[in-house]
Amino acid sequence: MNLPLIIINTLLLPLTPYLITFLLLLLFLEQLSYLKKKRTLPGPSLVLPFLGNAVSLVRNPTRFWDFQSSLAASSGLSANYIVGKFILFIRDTSLSHKVFANVHPDAFTLVGHPFGKKLFGEHNLIYMTGQEHKDLRRRITPNFTPKALATYTALQQTIILQHMKNWVSLASRTNNGIALRFLIRDMNLDTSQTVFVGPYLALEARERFKSDYNFFNVGLMKLPVDLPGTAFRNARLAVGRLVETLAGCAKQSRAKMEEEKQEPTCLIDFWMQEMVKELNAGGGDISDVELGAHLFDFLFAAQDASTSSLLWAVALLDSHPEVLAKVREEVAGVWDPESNELITAEQLARMRYTHAVAREVVRYRAPATMVPHIAAVDFPLTETYTVPKGTIVFPSAYESCFQGFTEPERFDPDRFSVERQEDRVYRKNYLAFGAGAHQCVGQRYALNHLVLFMAMFATLLDFKRHRTDGCDDITFVPTICPKDDCKVFLSMRRFPALTLQ
Fold first, then answer.
1. CA distance 396 to 499
2. Alpha carbon distance 233, 261 (integer Å)
3. Whole-angstrom Cα distance, residue 22 to residue 26?
4. Cα 263 from chain centroid?
5. Separation of alpha carbons 357 and 363, rounded Å
6. d(CA 366, CA 308)
7. SS3 string of 118-143?
8. Looking at per-residue confidence, does 453 or 135 come out higher?
9. Cβ atoms of residues 442 and 144 within 8 Å
10. What is the pLDDT of residue 251?
């Protein structure tokens, strides 16, 4: 006799109708919970059990968020359901500001990514609130002083020039053009490592760093299935290794800055210099591991957002030749590549039109399109709608940047001129760097990097897009970039002699 079959026939089969009924009841309750949270907001009326619309989000993020935006056109809000989580999309700028202004334990928690805590860990800057967050922001301030930014300017240019020279070499070996997305991503990773931890990251460590960051980037776009071999698990483990590496850099910097008369050469040095002073005055300390986690937070913020902006800068300069001509004219009046000198901080400040172009690139294609938060409590967002506790809320910086501005759908750097000053008039809508207590602390560094890149790219290279249908469509990777990965034809115009040494 087959004992297992007897057990199934005698015990389980009679229970099958009850099991099916129980399952249907759970599905009904899940659907009922979704509808109760959604109330009258626009959004799908029926959602798949547990997964909700996760498949459509992963398959085509651009279409998914465009759909949410269209639903929110009238009310400023729309709802959906993803992997067991009720989500709220915010299109209205004033409502986004209300979320940004209420990041504390009794309202909203910034998460940076729907499953960010599983990836970044519990103690990163983006999850801090209150006095702890204020203290860390205060300690970060010396990292972005004019002196620090001037130090970074030289480091940034050295890396940019090295990579541009390699791009020209790559382009010379093909007639089909080269896609810039991964090339710019690698350049930015190299730049971030050099600016943030400079001499403390050896060549071998840089190669491991690049590999681990790629694991992390892939995992960002996958479902949070934390099982061996999955992209999400690989990403989580990679973050641990990256933080450990950065913690080692912090330890080396601490030892150097404890010596007298040592000048900072990178971001962690500026940070450590101030920390040593604070410790000598009886202040508190931050462990090397904590510093490593914060450095990774900086890296994440600088890496993907900057890659997005640089790609769109190339695409928009190509499609607006009159803007490109004005950038080249301004840079030529400030910096001569054949002078065998890098652009100084003073020269960079004089590139006012190029700065306006950078600000317009970031407005027109805000790289961090949304800033996810989680509702820690039931929060009354409007007079008629209260955000249920546990909701993942997505204030859209992208949508806000197209509200209020004169002809917002037009790429127009002159809107940031001294005469028009739309950056002041519509300051409330310029949410590309966020708002409130968690507004991007490194935005001046990010804009400087974009201006330096455009000045060099426009001055040193001739370029033309390899245009195809839909090449400028938006795709999420996880920030936004042109659908064709910004494919261009490149050739050298002129190069400083210092890059050939």
1. 41
2. 44
3. 6
4. 30
5. 10
6. 9
7. HHHCCCCHHHCCHHHHHHHHHHHHHH
8. 453
9. yes
10. 93
